[in-house]
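Example record

The entry below shows one chain as it appears in the dataset: sequence first, then structure tokens.
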Amino acid sequence: MSPAVDVPAAGPPDGGSPGGGPPAGGPSGGGPPETRPGARRTGAARRLLARRPGAVLLLAATAMLLLVWIPACLRVGMVDLRVYRTAAPHLLSGDLYAFRLELPGPDLFPLPFTYPPFAALLFLPLSWPPWPLVSAAWTAASVLALCVLVHCCLRMADPAAEPGRHRRRVLLWSAALLWTEPVAVTLALGQVNLLLAAGVAYAVERRSAAAAGLGVGLAAGVKLVPAVTGLYFLVHRRWSAACWSAAVAAATVAAGWWAAPRSAAGFWLHAVGDAARVGPVGSALNQSVRGALSRTLGHDAGWSAPWWACAVPAALLALAAVVRAARRTDPLGALLAVQLLGLLISPISWCHHWIWAVAAVLWLTHAPHRTRAHTAALTAWCLALAGFLIHWLALAQPDIWRFGRPWYLAALGWGYPACAVLTLVALLLPVTGKATDRARGSRRPRSVFPAGASGAGASASGASGGWSW
């Protein structure tokens, strides 16, 4: 989320000139800007970031781990992880979807288990170890998943980056993005979002259709929204990968039905279409089109004509952006557009579901072509994510169940959908002039598409000078 930062070459320890002479400025401090105290401190900070990016990430991750883990052990915290852990054994007794985790407080409602039965099957081992171990391991795994997600996004955005430069980018971006709202809330709640997003991003990069389909199919088996990634395979004519992902997703449904037929029937035949069962649709935390529109109208928009009037143009915009990005051989742009489509049209998209905002920031920052739309979208995302917009809106709403609110709160409640639309517009804008040549020269993914697939590119090699993120 930071503009390009060029790290200057390290000078001699005594602050003299590179040639060994005395400092360019005199005692009065009237020398060149780089010799002034403020500039020297800034340069030292930049050199520290360039030389010790791992230490920066370790410090940020340790701070986040302590902020999340200690409250989780001392009081009610990481409530979604508690649901996964406590509800999973109910799969075997057949009352999985009757389970509710009771929480203290007037603004906290009893939390149900909202995922398919296959997810409960995967979560069963979480109920065996003690809670402090489970919560610490889950948080550490989520931080690692963020690093994997950033790594995959940056490799798709700039496959020709020199390995050392790429590694620094991954470490520093991961340290910074830990403190954005979707990531921080995911960690605080103990959500599974980072693990699923990292798995999807890693899977789509695989040349093997079976490996790509396996990753996406498993993610769709845990949560339904990642199934939209199949559209990415279809646009790139990766027919085998699309078939593999559909087959694996179907296998997860069969596995859940085999493990708990009664719970599976209850979910797939009744609960899957009930958005209100998941939580308050009109809460500021719900950043889907349906949630934002419901707050504007003052009642649940459901699948009414106003919802269709908003959802259809958003879907068409996203589909056009996917096709445009695929034609440009922009795999990250295409993947981002597909995921934004899923978040916009899903009935419930809590703010912590918007992990793909991480990919949006990375794509907007490292896109080979920049327009005013890129700048506007990046600025909007930075303000919303770093400013924890949804947190403040949640504090300002009268209660989580009431739809109506003042017009300005309803307008701000479109925050994430508006940022998504700006990003899709930036993806859709044509590339002209020098930007086109630069895009063609750098968009050569190493392992995104199989040989011979439409839009596939050869491996790119070569180092790029300087360092910026």
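Notes for this example: The chain has a mean pLDDT of 82. Residues 154 and 455 are 19 Å apart (CA to CA).
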